[in-house]
Amino acid sequence: MSTTWKSSNQKSVSRESANQATNNTVSGTTLSSSSSSWSRQQKLAMVASFAILAALLAVSACSKQSPKPALVGVSSPTGNSAAPAAVATLTTSPTPATVAASTTHAKKTPGKRPANVTYSDANYGVSFLYPRKARLTSGDKTQPEFAAVGDVPMNFAEPGGVAVATVALPDSSYPGTDFASAFFNVNVNRSASEQECSHFAFVDTRNTDGEPVDAEKVKIGASDMLTTSTFDASAIKQLETQYYHRYENGACYEYVLGLGTEGFATEGGVQHVDRDAVFAKLEKILASVKINPAVQENAAEPAATTMSGGK
């Protein structure tokens, strides 16, 4: 009985042990399976996390390598699009201070005036250029008194000459010399014929034989003219004049170039003026003369200057 019970008990214990072993085995299998399954999910999650991280790193790297203007364009809000227009407005619209400064600068630097001035007389159709610093007179005041010279006679062979204009160089043109005055005159004689215009009342008498010198044909500018000269001197004053005649517009035009000197040049003091330089300046005025068709005025012409004989 006793042995049989033991056997049964042992069987029971053996079954219980077997069942526990089986349960333990099943439970271990289940735990092991669950543990294995969680590890795979965790690995997948980790792999996904790494993939996302790698993608973010790649995007960040690409963003850093992109040019700055693109980043500014992407990040700038739509409202800032008006900024360039404002900048352009400020750039193109000067401030009042800038305008004032520009105006002041413009006033301080005026344009340089021409060295020559144009004289024109529609009644006689004559025009010419003369130095701005020279003194011009016309009409009744045409022949003023010149220093060391006085009145300058006309040199028409026939009466009827009229003084039109006179240009006098400044008295200080040649400092330190015996220069007293220099002038350019325009006279017109509508009573003289073309043949009479070729003659002069006074001719050059500086011939060594004392005989008058015939008028000389010269070309001044684009015009052919006849010329003669005179020289008058005293103990303290000297006058040299050059006369030119040309027939145009049915009238005889006379141009007079004159130089007056005064006193005597002394060694170590006053020097003789360069006569050639003075007459060269006057000849520039003569070369600029133009004659256009005259516009006859209904009013009476200015009183004709008496034809000069000797002084």
Structure, explained:
It is a single chain. The chain is an alpha+beta fold. The chain has 2 domains: 2-91 and 99-105; 116-291, Mog1/PsbP, alpha/beta/alpha sandwich (Protein Transport Mog1p, Chain A, 3-Layer(aba) Sandwich), CATH 3.40.1000.10. Helix content is 36%, strand content 25%. It is built from 6 helices and 10 strands, in the order ααααβββββαββββαβ. The protein has helices spanning 2-65, 68-75, 83-92, 96-108, 194-197, 275-287; strands at 116-121, 126-131, 135-138, 161-168, 179-189, 216-220, 223-233, 237-248, 251-262, 290-291. The strands form 2 sheets. It has a 7-stranded antiparallel sheet with strand order 3-4-5-9-8-7-6. It has a 3-stranded antiparallel sheet with strand order 1-2-10. β8 (237-248) and β9 form a beta hairpin. Mean pLDDT is 73; it is low at 1-14, 18-37, 68-91 and 298-311.
Record the SSE blueprint:
Layout: H1 2-65, H2 68-75, H3 83-92, H4 96-108, E1 116-121, E2 126-131, E3 135-138, E4 161-168, E5 179-189, H5 194-197, E6 216-220, E7 223-233, E8 237-248, E9 251-262, H6 275-287, E10 290-291
Antiparallel strand pairs: 1-2, 2-10, 3-4, 4-5, 5-9, 6-7, 7-8, 8-9
